[in-house]
Design brief:
This protein is mainly alpha-helical and about 100 residues long. The chain contains 4 helices and 3 strands. The chain starts with 11 loop residues before the first strand and ends with a helix.
Length: about 100
Amino acid sequence: MERLHPLAGIEDLNPVQPECMDLEAVASRYQDRLAFCGMIGTQTTMPFGTPDDVCAAVERCRRLHENGARVIVAPTHVLEPDVPWENIIAFIEAVRP
């Protein structure tokens, strides 16, 4: 019986949680086989970071993309009520081309 590759049929990894995953290591290892979604922390950056922290997190995703990773920049989960509006606005502005 032929063994299937462990990633057979999987096209994206969602969410990629920066609180518990090394984004650069995951992208480096799997970027030729997977797209990555949800790399902006909803347990750290979005609720407790500053707008500059949010912009830096988006920039980190942009650098991964520039290095060949396929990314969908998004919060890792639903934004809870404790996320400041300033961070939501910063996210929206940072992802605009």
